């Protein structure tokens, strides 16, 4: 498949790609979505698999009817699909949850129980300045969190990571690091970080929510020292709705402590005085499972594998570089990554228009041009305010003097189905907004931006 046809062929795989949406002036246009880092639209293959399975959908585990047995098979087979997709090492297991946030909270609870029982002095989590709140806030309740700094280019400082591993040494319970930032798109050398963590006898968690859908990912490195211990990611960011998150880690670890969330499905036997927990992963999946979500995820993974993750990564790199080349010279556009350095980067571009708030820019793109972006701090406030060079005091001042609006950015995030033609439309829109900035500022100054229904 040559590069000129990639986007068009990928578009055919996506549901709702030709959906018309209204503009503020009443006209309708084909929607353009550059907000894929938040949620991707579903694959056609995913909805087809759900529709096909729906007539056989039933309860899973312990039901003896054909539909129940078939539902159980698909649910359990999904674990194999995930493990193979991630090239997980032997002895790993897959625990399903609601999303990445849910998965990290579960790991936090299990790790706290494990360390309290076996190694109570390991009470420090090394998180980083790059993290999404979901890889920061859960740890604060049960551990002492230390944050690895970023360098002047807002990439992770490996030197600071080493220094903190040396400083806290045998107190570090886990190195929790994003595979790719949801703000800048910068990726981290996760296998090298794993080798550092293991050198100091601790483990590593990779938040793969942004990384796994965009490029090849392997939990196994070139040596056991480089292996990833835990990884989490979400189906809804890889073209599979229905609410499934994944936590992958050593089965022995999860078997070593009682489940954090107890109830039906987590036990082998119960009396009023005795509980025998089921083996992992069942012990960590309380209640009726989300079979539809697992079917969707499995189909999505198979579709991505058929397309080839390396080809997807190559196409999204083309989209990113094409966009940066086209917008970096537009007057008043401030780009918060180096447009000339997109190595170790996924398809995310944060920017602002000088003299215009991030929320106004994002809403004008939507209301006037039908282009979806995201604006704000992207659930990564410390990282965004660091990039914007704002102190906590300055942030509070900005909020108090801007009607409660937090400082932030506009984020473009591409999916495999986006096209060069869509980027051309974005460039026209941004040039129009910049050229007529005063007009748009007056037009939208007192607009409440209320949603207008289709």
From TrEMBL:
Query: Which cofactor does this sequence's record say it needs?
Result: pyridoxal 5'-phosphate
Domain Aminotransferase class V: from-to ranges: 32-426
GO MF annotation terms: cysteine desulfurase activity; lyase activity
Q: From the record, what ranges are coiled-coil?
A: none
Q: Which reaction does it catalyse?
A: (sulfur carrier)-H + L-cysteine = (sulfur carrier)-SH + L-alanine
Gene3D superfamilies under this entry? Aspartate Aminotransferase, domain 1, Type I PLP-dependent aspartate aminotransferase-like (Major domain)
| UniProt superkingdom | Bacteria
The entry's keywords: Lyase, Pyridoxal phosphate
Family under the similarity heading: Belongs to the class-V pyridoxal-phosphate-dependent aminotransferase family. Csd subfamily.
The entry's protein name is Selenocysteine lyase/Cysteine desulfurase
Q: Which organism is it from?
A: Clostridium collagenovorans DSM 3089
């Amino acid at each position: 498949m040559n590069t000129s046809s990639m986007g068009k062929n990928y578009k055919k795989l996506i549901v709702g790609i030709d959906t018309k949406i209204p503009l503020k002036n009443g006209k309708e246009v084909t929607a353009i979505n550059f907000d894929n880092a938040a949620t991707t639209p579903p694959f056609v293959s995913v909805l087809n698999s759900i529709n096909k399975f729906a007539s056989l959908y039933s309860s899973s585990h312990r039901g003896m009817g054909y539909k129940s047995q078939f539902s159980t098979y698909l649910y359990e087979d999904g674990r194999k699909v995930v493990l193979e997709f991630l090239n997980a090492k032997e002895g790993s297991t897959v625990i399903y949850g609601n999303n990445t946030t849910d998965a990290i909270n579960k790991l936090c609870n299990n790790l706290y129980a494990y360390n309290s029982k076996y190694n109570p002095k390991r009470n420090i989590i090394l998180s980083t300045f790059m993290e999404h709140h979901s890889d920061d806030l859960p740890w604060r309740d049960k551990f002492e969190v230390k944050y690895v700094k970023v360098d002047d280019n807002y990439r992770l400082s490996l030197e600071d990571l080493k220094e903190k591993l040396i400083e806290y040494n045998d107190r570090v319970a886990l190195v929790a690091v994003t595979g790719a930032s949801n703000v800048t798109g910068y990726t981290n050398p996760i296998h090298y970080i794993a080798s550092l963590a293991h050198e100091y006898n601790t483990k590593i968690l990779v938040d793969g929510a942004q990384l796994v859908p965009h490029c090849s990912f392997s939990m196994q490195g070139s040596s056991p020292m480089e292996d990833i211990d835990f990884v989490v990611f979400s189906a809804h960011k890889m073209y599979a709705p229905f609410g499934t998150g994944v936590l992958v880690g050593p089965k022995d670890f999860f078997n070593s402590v009682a489940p954090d969330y107890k109830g039906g499905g987590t036990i082998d036997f119960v009396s009023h005085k005795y509980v025998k927990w089921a083996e992992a992963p069942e012990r960590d999946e309380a209640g009726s499972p989300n079979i539809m979500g697992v079917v969707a995820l499995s189909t999505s993974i198979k579709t991505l594998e058929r397309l080839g993750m390396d080809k997807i990564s190559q196409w999204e790199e083309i989209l990113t570089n094409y966009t940066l080349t086209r917008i970096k010279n537009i007057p008043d556009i401030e780009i918060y990554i180096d447009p000339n350095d997109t190595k170790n980067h996924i398809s995310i571009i944060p920017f602002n228009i000088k003299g215009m708030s991030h929320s106004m820019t994002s809403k004008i793109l939507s209301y006037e041009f039908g282009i979806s972006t995201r604006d704000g701090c992207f659930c990564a406030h410390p990282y965004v305010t660091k990039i914007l060079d704002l102190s906590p005091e300055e942030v509070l001042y900005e909020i108090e003097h801007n009607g409660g609006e937090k400082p932030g950015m506009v984020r473009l995030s591409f999916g495999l189905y986006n096209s060069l033609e869509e980027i051309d439309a974005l460039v026209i829109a941004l040039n129009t907004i910049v050229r007529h900035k005063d007009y748009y500022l007056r037009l939208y100054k007192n607009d409440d931006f209320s949603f207008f229904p289709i």
